[in-house]
Write a structure and sequence with these properties.
The protein is of the alpha+beta class. A hairpin with a 3-residue loop joins strand 14 and strand 15. The N and C termini lie far apart (59 Å).
Amino acid sequence: MLAHLAARYRMATETEWLNRIDSGQVFLGDEPARWNDRLQSGQQLSWIRPPWIEPEVPLATAILFEDADLLAVAKPSGLPTLPGGGEFLDHTLLTLVRRRHPEAAPMHRLGRGTSGILLFAPTAKARKPLQAAFQDAGTRKVYRTLCSGHPEAEAFQITVPIGEVPYAPLGRLHAALAGGRPSESRVTVLERQQEATLVAVEIRTGRPHQIRIHLAWAGHPLVGDPLYGPGGVPLPGTQALPGDLGYLLHAHRLELAHPRTGERIIICCQPPPLLRTSRTDDRTP
């Protein structure tokens, strides 16, 4: 029976299925199963899953723009966009949004530690035209972050390719990689602090962890990033996962053509205090 469960239900390893059997979670008919039970045609095999206990996360969101064609929501740092990682099922932005729009689908995703604007298609009918508008060359996506050190230039471009590299905790991980996929970020210094710099980053491509990788490659990793270091690769000896928190990154401004009317729409989400400049009128993207 153990071999049957491990081969057919691969969401768990053989060891995990054995632990479930030993703890009395698996039943053959009405009786607790044993790992070496022989299965016969017509028998009922069931797994009584224990309650799913998810980590506490911030669940406060806000709607930034809403109509029949698109929905922009403010995601707090710490809230996953989608279920995954073996931990999060209900405590995700997708779950919260679907309470209001059951057919909603995200047009992109933000890392768990990233806050700010996340764009959804509110209905199945809206997905294709909104995806086309979001991927149009005229769409602008501007983020804010706090990077370590002080870049020499006030504005610069990073085009190092991004691809997957070996990484023991996950097997593979996105990082700076010659021969990877073309990637482009445009960085503008907003304010220099004592040991860090507040920057705006416009991404022209949307590779996984692009801003974290690009600024790390440039020698200015995000302050508090437990994963990426100089060179845009994992820090030596780190066992951190992409969803681990500690850095500040915020999707601040999104500009795109409305998928139905073509009207230019600008959506902004106020940055957290540490990503605002000291100016009283901080309107710079």
